[in-house]
Amino acid sequence: MKKKRLLIRASVLTILAASVIMTIYANLAEGGRSGPETGDKAPDFILTDQNGQRHRLSEYKGQGVLVNFWATYCEPCKEEMPLLEEQYRKYKNEGVHILAVNIGETDVVLNRFLERHELSFPVLNDRNQEVVDAFGVNPLPATFLIDKEGTITGIHEGPILNEKMAAEMMEKIKP
Amino acid sequence: MIELSENLLMIAFIVYLAAIPFFGGAIRQKNISKGKKSLKSWVTVAMIMTVAGFAAHLGYFITRWLAAGFAPVSNLFEFITFFGWCIVAAFILIFYLYKTPALGLAVMPVVVILLAYAGMFSGDITPLIPPLQTHWLQIHVITTALGQAILAISFASALILLIKKVDQTKRNISNICLEAILFFIISVIGFIFVTVAFNALDYSASFQRTNQFGAKETIEYKMPPVIGPNEGKLTAGQFEPILEAPAIIDAKKLNTVIWSFSAGIILYILMRIILRKRIGAALKPLTGGINEELVDEISYRSVLIGFPIFTLGALVFGMIWAQIAWSRFWGWDPKEVWALITWLFYAAFLHLRLSRGWHGERSAWLAVIGFGIIMFNLVAVNLVIKGLHSYAGL
Amino acid sequence: MNEIKCECGHVNPFGTILCESCGKSLSGTEEWKPSDMRYEGSARRSQTYNRTIVDKIWNFFSSVKVAIWLLVITLIVSAAGTILPQKMYIPPSVSPETFYGENYGWFGKVYYALGLHELYSQWWYMLLLASIGVSLCICSLDRAVPLYRALKSQGVRRHESFLKRQRLFGVTKGENLEEAVVKLKENLLKKRYRIREEGNAILAEKGRFSRWGPYVNHVGLIIFLFGAMLRFFPGMYVDEVLAIKEGERKEIPGTGGKYFLENKQFIHEVYDKNEHEAFAAALEKKGQIDKNFQTDVVLYKRSGDTVPGGEVKLKKEKEESIRVNEPLKFDDYALYQMDFRPILTGMSFLLIDKETDEELGEVRIDLDNPESRYDLGNGYAVEILDYFPDFDLNEEGLPVTRSKAPHNPAFVFEMKAPDRPDGEISFVAVQQTMEPYGNNKYKMQFSGIETKNVSVLTVRKDLTLWIFALGGLVFLVGLALGSYWNHRRIWIQKREQEIWLAAHTNKNWFGFKRELKAVLAGTGINEPQDRHETKGESR
Questions:
Q1: Domain range holding C86?
Q2: Domain co-membership, C197 together with C291
């Protein structure tokens, strides 16, 4: 009788405590990313590059892909472009690709930018911001590292500061 | 039609006012001797007048509804007049249940003051802005007002109990608090006096200042500025303000509050000089023949009747409407929060009464505080704290 | 664990104050206490066992005193959150950190530092609400079970002391009492009392269900809080904003790319002065009053793949108008009209020969998708060399754009003319023109703008709503049960030449006394005395 009472009380209290803790934890976690997290499967997308060629993320299966979100008005984005270009030349043949996704600026703006900067990797324009939304991109630049299985192995919000950092990213997703 | 409506409201106001002395007479005679026939006639006359005023008041409501095409509960003037009507309705109901003329003596002045207070706001029929164009406006506001009105009866009844019970032989915390309550009521009368007086004098002064968002704004005062806006420049009017308000405070409203309280203080002091004792002490003999158990029960019963209606109207209907209009049923808007506070307070009241045995005087103090919260939500939250509900403000 | 056996033979659990069956005081004191009847004098378990830590926590939350403190603390803290506007109601463009300090001085800084600017989502505020929830659960469990036992096993025949200690109690002496009792039973039945008899004892009872009101309403509140809890879990709740231009078609955020919306037009109407005689005075004073905000939309559902950026095949679902108070509903989603604002969508310029003022053609630029070259015929053309939708100067004084939205468009034009085949460069922004390479022959003269309304809609999915609705309904039903009905009991015992009558109600004593008067009328049984009145009113 006494034991039974203790058991009932203990279990009621445990259930209550667990739900309270879970709720508060869920609330605190809510402030985090709205998109996929590290370890999740990267959302697939189809976009067209500056040369009119279509790129579908899932078609890069078996290779590593670095997806970089950027805009022309974002200074740190512009500064990391040469770093990415350098890495792209190095790793292109080792199965690591770079897809630079512009967040949907006008063609005039984008073309003028590309005329001024020599970039050999595909620059895609996310006209309707669907890909931006799917990845939950908020501050720019944002870089997603996707391995050969299509899994996100790293999310970096903020600029790529130097060559070393860029190279480490490429190494991480080398198949 | 609009004119008819206004006249009916005026008639209701006058009849309510005239009924007060009859309620006074009714309980006075009851004090002297119980059961004589002539005494009953005072109550009868008082109640006939109340019902007549109530009918005229209803006439105002219906004619205004017809004129506008929607229930007149969409701005502060309309809400307060309707709230007054609900209090009278609740009083008639409670009178029918308990036959206590004393309650009339407490309720009628409150109603009269409320109606006069409503008169301080624009009485124009304002067409409904899009969020208000729904039946939920009527459902939500009418139910809420009814619930709050029944809670107001609880206040009136509690006030009677306090006047009767509080010890007036020497100064103590209880009778100071009671004086404070009465002083607040007098200050509302003070507010009405100064507003009417300066309106009659057609007073105005205006200031210019830059607000926190960097925009220039002109502030027009209808009362002489004792306290001026933060970094405001007087552009029209005679008096320079004595003090300047900090940026956080709306100087114009603070100025009105200062005037109202000043008038309240003067009125209060005058009354003290004439009566030569505390106002509570002066009122106490009136409550001599009142059954204390009865007013305690009326106060408690009113909370029991009013609390579910308030919950239904203010919270449940409010939430349903908020879900339809604003896409979320709860948004922590100040008015919502204060409705929740009111609800929590009365919940605490009921628990204290039911489980901790708070009866009589203690329960009466709580009923008074509860009504204070309702009034705060009606007046201060609408006028002072800006929120989504403030479109109903002016 | 001592059970208490009453002299009537009923076995009561440990801690019982009044015997569950006959009501005899088991504590030994004979003094009359009104509070004894609150839980029928049953054993509230929490008060009787207090050994382990589990018991201690349990007892803490089962105390009504603690519950009241929780209510009062929540009340005060909630009020504190309304002193200054919450973060969600301050302009979104300013940082809260500076906003509170700048506008409200030291008080604002303290307010911000304490986290009161987003009080209602602070973890400790949620903990406070959660404690109320825990208290609700435990208080109800702790009281409902023993109360159920006590009401279930209450005997008809009560101990003498129980009757004597009721607030309403009276003894009638006299002859012909049998007849009086028959008449009384008749009257009681008329008043819908349920009557149980046991020997010479009668128990008349009605409205027992109202005793369950508080527990029912607490269950409602628990359901409500449970709904609030679920909201934080993914998939249950979507809250997104969709800003959509007239003529635009966009994916509806939060729907996983399944739905698209097209904004056909936005309508903003104000009241007309002549519309209604009753409104004339108000319109005169206030000027303009809004009458309608409406977005006419077409809803599409995507068929086939939903790969972001991929080809979009759409099926038209419905065509409707979204107004305030009239959201568009589809699937589990609803779209609400929240706001609108006009935005710049196009600008036009005239190519002009500065000497002759001759107009050589007009260029109309779509600010969301400008062409790179506009041919004006006769050898005249304008090229856009650079476009700054949200023009500003950076630290080095060079033109840059701050965003991709055309808030403040600026252009670098190259004007080509038969007599200027290499072109002339001109920088044109709102109300300013620069010629970086000296005097030009031609200029681009601003000639007009196009604006469109952006309608701001809230996208909402809330799968928890029905739980809240259920909780609210249960709460109201419980509240009504507990508030509008009373549990009334009358105990009658026939003794030689005497009738004992005691009565109890959980509230509304005056109404009960009136009913007793009516029930006893014509029976010859005296109305019971009210101890509150005879004992004086001091409490």
A1: 44-152
A2: no
Task: Give chain C positions within 8 Å (CB) of A111.
Answer: 372
Instruction: Write the DSSP string, C134-195.
Output: HHHHHHHHHHHHHHHHHHHS--SS--HHHHHTSSEEEEEE-S-HHHHHHHHHHHHHHTT-EE
Contact criterion met (CB < 8 Å) for C49 and A5: yes
pLDDT in tens for each of the 175 residues of chain A? 677 888 888 999 999 999 888 888 887 776 556 678 888 888 888 888 888 888 888 888 888 888 888 888 888 888 888 888 888 888 888 888 888 888 888 888 888 888 888 888 888 888 888 888 888 887 778 888 888 888 888 888 888 888 888 888 888 887 7
Residue A26 lies in a domain: yes
- For residue A140, what are the domain limits? 46-172
pLDDT in tens, B157-182: 999 999 998 888 888 888 899 999 99
| Closest-CA residue of chain C to A58 | C307
In the stretch 195-254 of chain B, residues with CB closer than 8 A to chain C read 212-213, 246-248
Q: Does residue A37 belong to any structural domain of this protein?
A: no
Min Cα–Cα distance to chain C from A10, Å: 6
Q: Cβ distance B128 to B137 under 8 Å?
A: yes
Does any CB of chain C come closer than 8 Å to the CB of residue B37? no
Same-domain check for residues C411 and C351 = yes
The HSE-up count of residue C317 (CA atoms within 13 Å, CB side) is: 17
Task: Kindly report, residue by residue over A29-59, the tens digit of the pLDDT.
Answer: 765 566 788 888 888 888 888 888 888 888 8
Count of all residues that appear for chain B in the document: 394
Whether residue B146 is predicted with pLDDT greater than 90 in this model: the reply is: yes
- Per the domain annotation, does C286 fall within a domain? yes
CATH assignment at residue A93: 3.40.30.10
Q: How many structural domains comprise chain C?
A: 4
3-state secondary structure C271-325: CCCCCCHHHHHHHHHHCCCEEEEEEEEEEEEECCCCCCCCCCCEEEEEEEEEECC
CB contact under 8 A, B341 and C75: yes
- Minimal C-alpha gap between B296 and chain C (Å): 10
Interchain pair B387, C271: CB under 8 A: no
Instruction: Tell me, yes or no, whether C336 and C356 share the same domain.
Output: no
